Amino acid sequence: MTRKKILGSHVKRLLSGVSDHGRRHLKEVETDLVQTNLLLEEAIEKLTGSFMAIHQVVGERQDAIDRLLAGEAPSSEDSARLAGMSGEIGQHVNSAITSMQFQDMTSQLLDRTLRRVSGLGEFLATLSEHGAGIAPDSCSEEIVERLGKISMALAIQSLELRSMLRKSVEQRHLESGDVELF
Description:
The chain has helices spanning 3-69, 76-100, 102-132, 140-164; strands at 171-173, 179-181. With 182 residues, it is mostly helical. A two-stranded antiparallel ribbon has the order 1-2. The radius of gyration is 30 Å and the shape is rod-shaped.
């Protein structure tokens, strides 16, 4: 191979590697952001349902209280309904609280997304720093050597970033209905 072809091969491999690395991380960022959006939509839907259910039960309780205050004797149905309402309200409140724990999962996703973006920025900074050392009048061997060092530094950085990032955000439901994230 001629020097020119060797140099072209190294430049092509380096640029291809940078492009692949960048696209892979940007695709992961996109996936994390879509997942975050879905979590937010689901949580808002659940919260809305929980608060509407609480509103309905409180309204029914108020109606029964208003009848009692007006001097009406409570029917056996009213008595049973009033007795069960506290538990029902408690269930809806617990459901709302559990739904609000989406914040933990979205925080994990956003943290991972920020790490990816930061890692990609560091990756590009490494490329810039090493590339700045290539003088326009450098000989082919010197450029090939420099490109080899750049490729090695970027490969190490890429492996470090991948090992640092978790592949999934996890949620585990406990028996008590509480949610634990790790």
